[in-house]
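Ticket #290: bound-state structure for S-adenosylmethionine.
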Amino acid sequence: MTDPQAAIDAETAQERDERVGDYTAGDGEGIPFIGAGPGDPGLLTVTGRELVEDADLVVHAGSLVNSDLLDEFAADAEQVTSIGKDLEELVPLMRDAYEDGRTVVRLHSGDPAVYGAALEQMDALEHEGVPTYIVPGVTAAFAASATLRTQLTLNGVANHVAFTRPQGKTLAPEEDHIGEFLDMGDVTTCIYLGTHAVAETMDRLVEAGHDPDTPVAVVYHASWPDEDIIEGTIGTVGSKVEAAGYRASALVLIGDAARKVGYERSYLYDGWANRGSGDSASGSETEADD
Ligand SMILES: C[S@@+](CC[C@H](N)C(=O)[O-])C[C@H]1O[C@@H](n2cnc3c(N)ncnc32)[C@H](O)[C@@H]1O
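RESOLUTION: The complex was predicted; output attached.
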């Protein structure tokens, strides 16, 4: 009898299944939870592609995993969407196939570690004695910054990046920290799962006193053939997104990195490397990448 909740509630690996401790991430045994990347099949990692090509059963995340990727790399596999299935259905589906000797892969959009709900599936499978591991992928924020041709960290502009989501069904208003990230100033704030609520999110920021001229870029379907960029500010972008009709599948990026100007020359290409870091806190020269 499958009880995914027991695995989630367990406080130690041993409470789940004594074999769990035997499995280490990335040892290639068990069911890989693979990041499919943001959409473009070319952005699936080489390891991810090899595993998908080898699979008998591909359980995937539905519309955010590009069907071209499935057609190209998993044409011969059984393909099952996870949309509409709960843990109680998904876990036995993957467990039974694995125990029948089939090669099973779980494909998440982007990277499984970002708003992926991967761990609860992995823990439930491990609880049933099925090893799992993660193969990372390109998360939407990285695809969006590539589409915008900018950096998320930019010398003199943004020293930090926040991956966040707006309040809604899952997040209570007091758990919404978007305004606090903006208050920090030198943060690029990347909002996932907020396409349907761009206008409300921006209105809340204006009401809370944030500068309406703060730059915002909304990248719809980054890396897909129909990708689109809507550029504006906290004051203007909401109505632009509403006019475009996007309700899902966009990444909202707030901060000066979206404007792509005002940054400073990096230390790395300013003779820093030849002078030596002189910065014992940085640990080694190889850490100087901006
Ligand atoms: C359930 S989350 C999954 C995120 C995924 N694990 C990742 O790392 O990108 C889905 C949200 O990711 C964002 N997203 C995913 N793919 C995207 C893309 N190609 N372009 C823009 N945003 C994307 C959207 O905000 C969407 O609502």
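RESOLUTION NOTES: The chain has two domains: 4-137, 141-258.
TICKET STATUS: resolved
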